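Thread: Newbie trying to understand structure tokens

Hi all, I'm a second-year student working on a class project, and my supervisor (Dr. K.) asked me to get a predicted structure for one chain before our next meeting. I've only ever worked with sequences, so writing a 3D structure as a token string is new to me. If someone could post the tokens and maybe explain what I'm looking at, I'd be very grateful. Here's the chain:
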Amino acid sequence: MTDSPEGYDVEKVEEWIRTNISELSPPLTWIRLEGGHSNLTYRIEDSYGKAAVITRPPQGELLPKAHDMSREWSLISALGPTPVPVPIAMGFCESPEITGAWFYVMGLVDGRPLYNNEETLDWVPESKRKTLAYSFVDVLADLHAVDPGKVGLSDLGKADSYVGRQLKTWYRSWTSSIESAHYDDPRAHELQEFFIKNLPEQKGLRIVHGDYGLHNCLTGPDSKIAAVVDWEISTLGDPLADLAYALNFFPDPSDAIPISPEAATAVPGFPARSELAKRYGKRAKADLSNLDYYTGFNRWKSACIVHGVYARYMAGQKSSEGVDLEHMRERIGIALSLSEQAVNRLTQ
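---
Reply by user tm_fold:
Sure, no problem. This is what the structure looks like when written as tokens:
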């Protein structure tokens, strides 16, 4: 609990809420919530005990498109009437004069994000982990069933190839990071070439979350997905790319390299990744014969992302105190190996 929440002019924000959100009656109690891509997020409780959540970007200079409040607001507003569970959209402020940045207020959801195995063990009983996994994949199928045009989101992203754009973006990241990282791997180039040459035709645009995982969902007391959050990189794209990314968090008996033992899904009781893929395919009526292409692409993309972060550490652009750089370097190679394995399954 705090009387001086970071990034908020309490008097001006509470006056704005008093004028624009009839469900809340300031003064408010403010309690900091962690997570959410470093956004300044608080649980607020009004004078009658009604609770909600308020969020704004971090203070200081931000990268273009980072911490996009308007994108997140448009998603939860548009998806509210659909089967996709999202927090209730209560109010959006586009006037930086109020508190120095755009912010929005949404309903409080009874649920927790799961970032690691300890949180899963604490919140989800082993007997309910299959329930959670099924709910997780069903919600993703329901998201991909939403017609963007019918919910006012036809301008959420470009109409050209979602995977094609990312292949160019992340390959550029890899090549520009080689010198600072003092690390290159020929597989990064060979895989990018394979993905470009074998790029599937994108069949229809759907809303893709872009970072769909248990860390960006709120798991309710019933061990089902109570809400999907953190929509700031959501766009229009290929749903199979979204699916493959989400499934990569789950283990499978065929894995030559197991998932991280710290992962939220690295505990007993979760169904295999292949089982979840079949469930998605049935619910979404999707052809998954080429899913390994998207699995490999996502593994390759992960390698590029970690490579870029590693390069910034090696260049001294970020403090490496307490960071295991050797492990980070190993993660790059592991991601490329996993990408290579997926590609090999395609070409066998």
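A couple of things are worth pointing out once you decode it. The beta strands are 29-33, 40-45, 51-56, 89-93, 103-107, 206-208, 217-219, 225-228, 235-237. Confidence is low (pLDDT under 50) at residues 62-66. Feel free to ask follow-ups in this thread.
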